Amino acid sequence: MSAVPLRICFVTGEILGAHKNGGIGTATTHLALFLARAGHSVTIVYTGAPWVDGAHPWMRRCEAAGVAVTHLDARDGEIYPLWLRETCVMLDYLRGLEQDVMLFQDWEGPAFATIVAKRTGIAFARTVLAVIAHGPTAWLLDANRRLARDPRTLAHLHMERVAFEQADAVLCPSRHMLDWLRGSGQPLPDRAEAVPLYLWSDPEDALPERRGEALEAVDRLAFFGRLETRKGVDLFLDAILSDALADRDFEVAFVGKPASHTPDTIRDAVARRRPSLLPRLFFEADLDTDAAQAFLRDGRWLAVIPSLVDNAPCVISECLRRAIPFVSTLTGGIPELVHEADVARVLVAPNAPSLADRLDAILGGRFAPARPAYGERDVGARWLAWFETVGRPATAAPEPAAAAPDPTPAEHRPGQGGDRLAVVVTHFERAALVGQTLESLADQTRPGFDVVLVDDGSRSPAAMAALAALERRRWPFRLTVLRQPNRYLGAARNAGVRATDADRIVFMDDDNLAFPNLVERLDDAMSRTGADIVTCQMSIFRDPVGEPEPAALLDAERWGFIGGALELGLSLNCFGDATGLYRRGVFDRIGFFHERRGVGHEDWHLHARAALAGLTSVSIPEPLYWYRRVPTGMLLSTDSYANNRVIWDAYAQALPPGLARFVDLSVRNTLVDAMG
């Protein structure tokens, strides 16, 4: 029992009781039960789609051990783009929990928003955030010989990269995965280590141990795992249908869920190459983890697990624990699981000829199960020691970072600079709306900033009179009204930058409304992270003249950004709206907003150029202002191709001249098609 229990929360998309099998669900459920029985307070926040059956034996085990299970439907909510929805729904829920340690799976970056929230200082100051590297997207793409061809995949690659880099700790179930992450150039925290994952919480399980019992005459081969390329289903088919085994008699079973292959596609392959095997072909696609092991054991099958690459596959650990004889491949983290004395006997090179030769040697003869490389008690002790070390004391949120040096030469810096902050508000013929904007800035929780209101050529008597009234009004900030001929939005923002000597600049449009904590959150996040640009999410409202009701915020549509995902930024603005906080040095380093009349995306264009120049940005994963979306918005009234062309040109200019047209090939075809 732990002397001082820790509060430990697992955030997972798989759990036994909702999923019949799968490595993540198996590992998470058993580890949670183990830690609860060791005296810790354990919570599982399950975020998957399949419903949890409260009467399922695994749920009863959790209840008996004191493991609290919550099903959070992370798909529910008006948060866009869709790849941000789940991670933001998780953040919104998790920030209401008090935990010492939270552990997330890695695939598709569910920890992203929570980790960025801690980094920017909005939550989790005393909670350790850890990521377990089961199988990141980049690793899976390579393993399955696929390419990142869609924006969702590019977004997930970035979200995973940020989660790994900025987590308090990263855990890898194998040295293979830790080496792969480091070899791929993935930045990792100081506490990144390999710890065997599988702990079994049911030593008195109904399935008896069969340690040391061999198959006396192997005549049954069972592919054990998901029916997908990475798990070696093609390799297995090539081996059993090869000439090397043409004269051998055996039965074949496929024990696993369909994936890249189905029972029908497998039957078709067998029918083409060895139709005589069809009557001896069996499929077990719907067994849970215990039933699958019982099927292999009771049917006296030789499990074949021919993965092309794998981390620390659950099926290997299950076979080792149940002493189920198996053959697998010398790849990934598999050799780390098997006792060194058995490696040469049960593991082969990951190719069909090697597997066929090994099966040919085994069929008809005696074959004993392999032994595990480590004992379960040792693994349990390592996990308990890890939690004691990492979870006590909890890692505090990062302190505000020292301000990054301003790259502007001293002789070119206007005024005193330093810590001064200004808000630049752009306006054209909407004095009633800009009055609402200024009132929202008057309610800020962080005082002591200036406001520069740039009127971009308003001419109507009503607008001129309203502006004069706003200028005369007493505000809790120093207001400067700058009037200029109409030169369009980018030029208006640039004029505002030049009119202030502040070191940090926030931009607001005249039809948007700041939340009371907008300036404080942005300023604090920049100080903590040292980022050059800090943006945030927006809440959408559609009233063309009025203000949103405060209660509408709970159900409002939200639009967010993932920050500096340079590859995705070619086709989509993943960086942020203009509303955000910018260091003055950004403009001296890369220039100002573009001033092309009638062309939009000046904010996206600036963000992309900043990212291409190596400047850093972060986007706070919560809304900090109301964004007014109306049919007369600028992007809806300007040419889509011209708007996007400025982005593509910025990327092309960053490439050698002979490669500039690669940008044309890289832009999503669906985007170009939509423009006609």
From TrEMBL:
Keywords: Transferase
CDD domains in the cross-refs: Glyco_tranf_GTA_type (cd00761), GT4_PimA-like (cd03801)
Region (Disordered) residue spans: 397-417
Coiled-coil residue windows: none
Keyword ATP-binding among UniProt keywords: no
Top-level taxon of origin: Bacteria
GO biological process, one term: single-species biofilm formation
Alphabetical list of InterPro entries matching this protein: Glyco_trans_2-like, Glyco_trans_4-like_N, Glycosyltransf_2, Nucleotide-diphossugar_trans
Domain (Glycosyltransferase 2-like) ranges: 423-590
One MF annotation (Gene Ontology) recorded for this entry: glycosyltransferase activity
Annotated ranges, domain Glycosyltransferase subfamily 4-like N-terminal: 22-196
Name recorded for this polypeptide: Glycosyltransferase
UniProt source species: Lichenibacterium minor
